[in-house]
Amino acid sequence: MGWDEYIPQLMIQGVGDAAIFGKAGDCWAAHPQGNFKNIPNTDIVTVQGDRAKFLAEGVRLGNRKYTLIGVAVDKYTSLRLKSKSSEDDEQRYSAVIFLTKQMVTIVEAKDSSVTIPALLSVTSTIDYLFDRGY
Prior knowledge:
By secondary structure, this protein is an alpha+beta fold. 24% of the residues lie in helices and 34% in strands. Strands 2-1-7-6-5-4-3 form a seven-stranded antiparallel β-sheet.
């Protein structure tokens, strides 16, 4: 199965964008109409590294800047994010970054009504890939 075939499994109800990256930041697969496919390698490396810097400065994913609002560690790490808004009427989006042995997977809500618990419903796909060594 090619990496692109996992994107529809991540694009469940409520997910508006998804991408899978290698640990070095190379994009393995991304939603064709999404903006995650253009995330620079340095941003992917940043989310895996210095959490203090991540907490202080946030991270840019595609065309949105995110703040880290929670971390969960189980078989793999999930970073829970909320977008920063520059204007009062701008929607704030939720996103989750899953860090596994060999990959970084990002899912983003399709709109501001989708919460982080809804985004966590993609964990069956993440679990599947993790259990196969990724």
